Amino acid sequence: MAGTTVDHLTETYRAHYRSLLGLAALLLDDTASCEDVVQEAFIRVHSARKRVRDPEKTLAYLRQTVVNLSRSALRRRILGLKLLSKPMPDMASAEEGAYDQLERDSLIKAMKGLQRRQREVLVLRYFADMTEAQVAETLGISLGSVKAYGSRGIAALRVAMEARA
């Protein structure tokens, strides 16, 4: 086969859109950005579908694209925040109200406190239900690194969750 077909990509879209949206939601912090990232991932995979020689790897390619696009979105957001002027101390910004609502869940708060790689490994391993080998391939790191980031991430989560209790 000369790559992933449009029909196969459409089927993958229908079957995995929600799980990819959930993956992005654990890496980002607002629904609109998550939807944008997942849509962009499908557009990019559609454009590059001839290079995905094994149709069985389409989902893995999509997951990796979602992770990479989420990283890029976070980098752009951080740069934007650095360039914005600081609001006056007595003025609450609109973002503060939105972030307060999103941060009510203790687990999400604890996940945000993890190092980027720890968070990525835990999200892919436990939310996306990937094997350690699949996580290693998706992130482009060794299997040993996946195990190390995973165990350190779980230990950090345990400490953060106990501190909130």
UniProtKB/TrEMBL annotation:
It comes from the Bacteria. Keywords: DNA-binding, Sigma factor, Transcription, Transcription regulation. Pfam families: Sigma70_r2, Sigma70_r4_2. GO terms for biological process: DNA-templated transcription initiation. InterPro entries: RNA_pol_sigma-70-like (IPR039425), RNA_pol_sigma-70_dom (IPR014284), RNA_pol_sigma-E_actinobac (IPR014325), RNA_pol_sigma70_r2 (IPR007627), RNA_pol_sigma70_r4_t2 (IPR013249), RNA_pol_sigma_r2 (IPR013325), RNA_pol_sigma_r3/r4-like (IPR013324), WH-like_DNA-bd_sf (IPR036388). GO terms for molecular function: DNA binding; sigma factor activity. Gene3D superfamilies: 1.10.1740.10, Winged helix-like DNA-binding domain superfamily/Winged helix DNA-binding domain. Residues 105-157 form the RNA polymerase sigma factor 70 region 4 type domain. Belongs to the sigma-70 factor family. ECF subfamily. This is RNA polymerase sigma factor. The keyword Transcription applies. Residues 13-77 form the RNA polymerase sigma-70 region domain. The keyword Transcription applies. SUPFAM superfamilies: Sigma2 domain of RNA polymerase sigma factors, Sigma3 and sigma4 domains of RNA polymerase sigma factors. It comes from Streptomyces aurantiogriseus.
